[in-house]
């Protein structure tokens, strides 16, 4: 029953092409004030560009009672500063359910440093979320040259029940990881006017979708930038 719920909720994050698309908007916990638009505008950007879901921290998510058809991915774990690799629990699965979330997200510095408490918490949250039918997205931070440990990361995510894994686009990286793996989403990183080209390249490498923030909401026209990403994911 719960497995079916996870599959159904994953479908809510998925475009007609079968690719996943999420607007990442959980930056300010770690990065501080970066000019993130108000929550209502973020929802409008996702809705009007055709992106089915967005990530938010609990405080932002609690501001709205209606997400206007956009699905909430609630961030449950993050870091208070960009320089501190250790991530901390910031919300719970219970909060996600109360806020009507379709999925939950966790941040990890798994490829930067190994933290036993962090790994344990990720495992526990993934299990609890799955028991309520909520898919889990694991966001991995680290520089590209640290992705030599990608196989270990993918194996860990699979074994603890993580459904989606968000990593930067690294050319040929997925060629060395098992085919039986979580869905791999490309992260956006710094704002990039050519983000749609990077998305197309990632899809050719085996990525299953994208979870992108700054390249969309910091663009001169966020809705057009979002549409460009959606078109890339749709194969247009």
Give the strand tally: 10
The order of strands across the largest sheet is 1-2-3-6-7-8-9-10
Structural class: alpha/beta
Corresponding CATH architecture: Alpha-Beta Barrel
Overall average residue pLDDT? 87
Reading off the top of the CATH hierarchy, the class is best stated as Alpha Beta
How large, in whole angstroms, is the Cα Rg? 16 Å
User: Level of helix content?
Assistant: 25-40%
Give unreliable regions as ranges.
none
In the CATH hierarchy, the third-tier topology is known as TIM Barrel
Shape: globular
SS strand fraction: 15-25%
* Whole-number tally of structural domains: 1
Terminal Cα span: 35 Å
- Helix and strand succession? HEHHEHEEEHEHEHEEHEHH
Describe the main β-sheet briefly: 8 strands, parallel, barrel
Helical element count? 10
């Amino acid at each position: 029953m719960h497995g079916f719920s996870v599959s159904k909720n994953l479908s809510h994050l998925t475009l007609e092409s079968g690719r996943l698309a999420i607007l990442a908007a959980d930056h300010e916990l770690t990065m501080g004030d970066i000019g993130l638009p108000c929550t209502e505008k973020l929802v409008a950007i996702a809705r009007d560009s055709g992106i089915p879901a967005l990530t938010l921290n609990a405080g932002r998510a609690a501001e709205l009672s209606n997400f206007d058809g956009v699905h909430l991915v609630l961030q449950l774990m993050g870091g208070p500063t960009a320089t501190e690799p250790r991530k901390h629990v910031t919300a719970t699965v219970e909060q996600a359910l109360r806020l009507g979330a379709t999925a939950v997200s966790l941040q990890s510095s798994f490829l930067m440093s190994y933290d036993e408490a962090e790994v344990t918490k990720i495992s526990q949250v993934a299990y609890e979320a799955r028991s309520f039918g909520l898919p889990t997205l694991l966001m991995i931070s680290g520089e590209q040259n640290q992705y030599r440990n990608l196989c270990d990361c993918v194996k860990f995510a699979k074994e603890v029940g993580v459904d989606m894994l968000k990593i930067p686009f690294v050319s040929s990286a997925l060629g060395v990881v098992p085919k039986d793996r979580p869905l791999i989403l490309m992260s956006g990183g710094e704002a990039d006017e050519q983000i749609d080209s990077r998305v197309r390249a990632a899809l050719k490498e085996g990525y299953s979708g994208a979870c992108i923030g700054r390249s969309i909401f910091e663009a001169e026209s966020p809705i057009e930038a979002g549409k460009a990403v959606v078109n890339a994911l749709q194969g247009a």
